[in-house]
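Quick one:
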Amino acid sequence: MQVTVLGGGSWGTTVAALAAANTPTLLWARDPDVAAEVDEQHTNGRYLETRPLPTSLRATADIAEAASSADVLVVGVPSHAVRATLSLLTPHVRPWVPVLSLVKGLEPETRLRATQVIGECLPGHPVGLLAGPNLAREILDGLAAAAVVATPDDAVACALQPLFAADRFRVYRNDDLLGSELGGVLKNVIAIASGMADGLNVGDNTRAMVITRGLREITRLGEAMGAYASTFAGLTGLGDLMATCMSKLSRNRRVGEEVARGRTIEEIVAGMTQVAEGVRSARAVMELAREHEVEMPIAAEVDAVINEGRSAQEAYRGLRRRAAEHEHAAG
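Output:
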């Protein structure tokens, strides 16, 4: 079974490396230099430094070649590029090929999740998600991790599980695609708030409060949209939230930390080689919250910092002004 992974960033390359250990795998990278390095030198120095990749992993910059050979298609490009990328390969992908998303963001203009965009671009294809608390460099370094294949069709999930599993990378199944996908989107916004806590040196107690109350916000919005509350206590919810909020490797956490130290969003984003999805998703998340009448005070402060010029100090003062209610309420 041929797996094709779209996206030569750190996570797309890592997922391709996992798959290459189990089945023939082709990585598509937009940059021909990245594709050539992966294909010939078996490294991706731009995103993964000198970490070795499987010699069986092939790479190309030709999207027609990548699409036409796929028995399973994995989409690992940034959220804002999903539709444009899929439009290039639509004429070349065969019918009924399953499509897995790695994307943890919303399409900015439509507020659609990546799997919804995929469904519009590739109607008739089974669509799912591969997600979890997964930091690419740790996985390539051989540290143990786990992820979830989320799709409404359990037979499809069972077929896809072994393609990405490894001795130290366990792959579970979940039929709550909506909840699994929302967890990955929403945790990026909370991770920016967690990073601001680090940058402001407000202490671990405050950061723990932000993470747990942030999880409550995520769960409330997810339930309002039709997801299962239990999903947000799992790998794609709490697990992904913890990894993104706590790791020094987290791009979204780093954005919050740098904002708290006085840098502007524009300066921070300009200095990053990969997308911090929380920056792009914050406004769309707040629009979803208003649409579903869900209070998300932490996400609202992050949105104000990113899109309205509020400082990290002002954001944390705003959170302190809220009166505490029942723990399971908003706020």
